[in-house]
Amino acid sequence: MAAAETLLLLVSMHRIVRHLRRSRTTTVMHPTQFLALMLIADEQPIRIGEIASRVPCSQPTATTTVAALEQAGLVRREPDPVDGRATAVVLTEVGAATVEASGQQAADELSNLLNRLDDTDRALVLKAGQALSRITKDL
């Protein structure tokens, strides 16, 4: 792939993500908190160390982030099912509702952006989303 095309894709993805973050009104949280919350939703139960490596952020930042999410009632800590000496983080009902609302709002806003394209380009972008999902599966 040509370097200019790759750079254009990168810049466009960043602009879309930035736009979606700015348009999010259902939750008011720091981007690291939002990313951690989405990761917890996908991977729960999950240890704080795993959150730190996957967000990515430092271990102290992950601990602070989980504490803030816990204080907001979005997550709770419980004994790790594999190692009872450790703790794992899971969503609360409020956290699950927040994830669902945030995901729906982001999907709606992205749909608004995609509606700026003609049918052919929109179908192409949606098909590319499937390929991008495959390459980001283990990130």
From TrEMBL:
The protein's name: MarR family transcriptional regulator
InterPro entries: HTH-type_Bedaq_tolerance, HTH_MarR-typ, WH-like_DNA-bd_sf, WH_DNA-bd_sf
Family matches, as PROSITE patterns: HTH_MARR_2 (PS50995)
Alphabetical list of SUPFAM superfamilies matching this protein: Winged helix' DNA-binding domain
Single GO MF descriptor: DNA-binding transcription factor activity
Organism: Kribbella jiaozuonensis
Domain HTH marR-type per the UniProt entry, residue ranges: 1-139
Pfam family name, one: MarR
PANTHER family: CONSERVED PROTEIN, HTH-TYPE TRANSCRIPTIONAL REGULATOR RV0880
Lineage: Bacteria, Bacillati, Actinomycetota, Actinomycetes, Propionibacteriales
